[in-house]
Amino acid sequence: MKNRRTILGALAVLAILPLAACESAADTANSNLDKAADNFEVPRRVTAINGITDQVLFTVEGFCSVKKNNGDFFVTCKLPDGSIERTSMILSDNVTATVTQIGGKHVDLFRPRVIFRPETIIPNFDLSTSAGN
Fold first, then answer.
1. In a domain, 108, yes or no
2. Which residues of 74-85 are buried (b: 16+ CB within 10 A; e: fewer)?
3. Which of 41, 86, 91, 110 has its CA 20 to 30 A from that of 99?
């Protein structure tokens, strides 16, 4: 029975290995950069431009994570004092946003980055009662 489990485990690993090797070095680096940016480790500049007038609507700089969801664009940045600031906008036909990495970040080209944050297991609770009214 023990040998059967060992053989099944080895077969499972052998089946997964080719899938892990399919990514190029650039794909792995991009994935690792995305993870680094989502952890506020990559300096970026986000610029919104009016496509009709060519005017810059606003610029956000800092250690920022950028998410796009349909027409919504969310930029979350960590400020030097440790606080977090969020800028949200809705992209339209005449508004374009560019995200430029303004500083380098060393990332592994061959090994994907895995982040385990044990402090996220226990949520931060806020207690709100009607006793204070």
1. no
2. ebbbbeeeeeee
3. 110
* Chain position carrying tokens 């005017």: 55
pLDDT tens track of the chain, all 133 residues?
556 556 555 555 555 555 555 778 889 888 988 999 999 999 999 999 998 999 999 898 889 999 988 878 899 999 888 899 998 888 888 888 888 888 888 888 888 888 887 877 888 788 888 875 6
| Residue in the block written with tokens 């060519």 | 54
Residue range(s) defining the domain that contains residue 32: 7-103
pTM as predicted = 0.65
Domain count, the chain: 1
- Please indicate, yes or no, if residue 126 is contained in any of the structural domains: no
